[in-house]
Design goal:
This protein has 413 residues and is an alpha/beta fold. It is 25% helix and 23% strand. The protein is built from ten helices and 22 strands. The protein has an eight-stranded parallel β-barrel with strand order 1-2-3-4-5-6-7-11, surrounded by four helices. The protein has a six-stranded antiparallel sheet with strand order 17-16-22-13-14-21. Strands 8-9 form a two-stranded antiparallel ribbon. The longest helix has 19 residues. The protein starts with a strand and ends with a strand.
């Protein structure tokens, strides 16, 4: 059965992925991963806890050390790999041969990052001396992917573990205009390298085209001409599963815990249904896509390179096009287990009975619920507003300092 791989850029996202059925989680530590400029990242001291939390759910913990590496950082890589080995991290994701060699010298399993740009079986055969899992280049078609998977089986191309090489591909999430993952735009414009995990995402901005001689400006139908829509493979997910791939990767280490929860939940359901031999019906796929659209997205590209399509579906705006928006309203200050009551300190906004809320936290993950009544000193209040310390019935176990958001349908007018 293929593994469902979830992103984790924070403890909240890690828990959200595990709660919703991820078979493995990938994450980064410090500056040597491709999301080193993310708002939240793990530290080397977090490695034992991350591994333990994953293993407690029968999931794998995969550590990304997938930037290009400078000589001055080799000792840091060695120390990080040593600590990963001690913490029982299951694999290291790498693209730089230096990381591959160092990890293998410590008998740490290696997975090849998409930055390695593996696009043919000879390259798979070359990297088989280092890696047990390879992420294929983004621009391959399903036909090409199927051929590589079939060749691995027929020719018995094995990794260091002695098992057949496993093929991993992306199934959902952000796409980069530099399809091979080797972009120099951020480095050129901001002296901040995308290949060092510090992309400024210049491509996600709007631009004006101006004639430098006359000053004349030209209108572009879509100003975000370098910002692709997000990949969504639901409509042909069965074909992906039939291609022979072993790992299904969700992009999104820079995204929130509720994004991870919804996306993992949808693809988990689709994968389990397919494994039971049940077809993925159009009406059901539409419902799942609606759930995916409720969290952060830039619109969906539903064919991708997998179906041989040309990149040309651009984001309509620079922000999320999620159909549901969230507004921070406060934090949980206590949870009473026996009566199943949560205490919430409102620090902004308002809540009324019937509102849906999202609660996120390091061990809570991302939980959504509808609240029928808010009490202040035992008396019902409507609305609950800033400054109030209110309680509400909650069957879900919440924790002190969990963040609470109000969920609202986005006005599309």
């Amino acid at each position: 059965m293929p593994l469902l791989l979830a992103p984790a850029g924070s403890s909240e996202s890690l828990e959200a992925g595990l709660q919703n059925g991820a078979d493995a989680v990938y994450f980064g530590v410090g500056k040597l991963n491709m999301r080193s400029n993310a708002t939240v990242n793990f530290t080397v001291d977090d490695l034992p806890e991350v591994a333990a939390r994953c293993h407690a759910r029968n999931a794998k913990a995969w550590l990304a050390i997938n930037t290009i590496i400078f000589d001055s950082e080799l000792e840091e890589v060695r120390e990080l790999c040593r600590r990963a080995k001690e913490a029982r991290i299951d694999a290291v994701i790498a693209s730089d041969p230096a990381v591959m060699r160092i990890a293998r010298s410590m008998e740490l399993p290696v997975h090849l990052s998409v930055q390695a740009n593996i696009a043919n079986t000879e390259t798979v055969r070359f990297y088989s001396q280092f890696a047990d899992v390879v992420v294929l280049a983004r621009e391959l078609t399903l036909e090409q992917i199927s051929h590589i998977c079939r060749t691995i089986r027929e020719e018995k191309i094995c990794g260091p573990s002695g098992e057949l090489i496993k093929v991993e591909i992306f199934i959902h999430g952000a796409l980069c205009v530099a399809v091979s993952g080797k972009c120099g735009m951020s480095l050129a414009a901001c002296n901040s390298s995308a290949n060092r995990g510090a992309c400024f995402q210049n491509c996600r901005r709007s631009y004006t085209v101006r004639d430098t001689e006359t000053g004349a400006e030209f209108n572009i139908d879509n100003r975000y001409v370098m910002s692709p829509r997000d990949l969504c493979t639901l409509e042909f997910f069965d074909r992906i599963l039939e291609s022979g791939v072993s790992v299904l990767k969700i992009e999104g280490r820079g995204r929130s815990a509720d994004y991870v929860a919804h996306v993992v939940r949808v693809y988990r359901a689709a994968l389990d249904q397919w494994m039971r031999g049940e077809p993925l019906r159009p009406g059901q796929l539409a419902k799942w896509e609606e759930e995916l659209a409720s969290v952060f997205n830039r619109g969906f590209w539903k064919g991708g390179y997998y179906l041989g399509n040309k990149l040309g579906e651009w984001a309509a705006c620079g922000d999320s096009q999620a159909t549901v928006r969230k507004e921070f309203v406060g934090r949980i200050v206590n949870y009473y287990k026996k009566p199943e009551v949560a205490e919430l300190l409102m620090t902004s906004g308002e809540l009324v009975p019937g509102d849906r809320i999202l609660v996120t936290g390091d061990t809570t993950g991302a939980q959504e619920l509808k609240v029928d009544e808010f009490l202040l000193d035992g008396v019902a209040v409507n609305p609950a507003k800033k400054g109030m310390d209110v309680t509400f019935l909650c069957p879900l176990r919440l924790r002190t300092n969990d963040k609470v958001y109000k969920l609202m349908e986005r006005n599309r007018s």
